[in-house]
Amino acid sequence: MKVTKSEIVISAVKPAQYPEGDLPEIALAGRSNVGKSSFINRMINRKSLARISSKPGKTQTLNFYIINDVMYFVDVPGYGYAKVSKSEKETWGKMIETYFTGREQLKAVVLIVDLRHPPTNDDVMMYDFLKHYEIPVIVIATKADKIPKGKWQKHLKVVKETLDIEKGDIVVLFSSETGLGKEEAWKAIHTFTHI
Ligand code: GDP
What we know:
Elements: E1 6-12, E2 25-30, H1 36-43, E3 62-67, E4 71-75, H2 86-102, E5 106-114, H3 121-132, E6 137-142, H4 152-163, E7 170-173, H5 182-193
Parallel strand pairs: 2-4, 2-5, 5-6, 6-7
Antiparallel strand pairs: 1-3, 3-4
């Protein structure tokens, strides 16, 4: 999709604040610092609409970005940041669970992992959570530019095995730095948004 328009509509913490209407939503999840903001910005051709955070784990809101007036990206706060307190983690968990399990407009979750390393326990938990609730998942293995091309397939295999990926789930090799995988990621998103 050629994105010509994108803007933040609301930073929400509860359902009453979610945007009205029935446009499809694609949520973006990943551990702090994995490259989620960079992914969003690359997908929508913006330098810094989604905040590229110097302080991981800071944003504790669901950020709704409207794209070409036809769909939303919903940026979910990153997980796995050690300095977040237990009560903050609980608040995060409730907010995410409420959104993921109750939002009809949510069509799929883009789960962003780092191609360089095996997915973390938190990544596996998030994947299992989404599977449990039968929410479609698109896995993005980002930062591909940081490892040699000859090792991509080996690393992809580790990602798939560690997540115990279900047959048929899409895993996209990605780089926000080079734009690798951008078209494939949009194609995957379109299969769920039907736009
Ligand atoms: P977030 O916390 O998940 O939103 O992560 P950011 O998008 O802020 O990225 C964290 C750091 O990784 C930043 O320094 C980015 O410039 C860097 N980064 C993100 N994606 C890529 C990528 O595909 N390639 C490279 N080389 N660096 C990346």
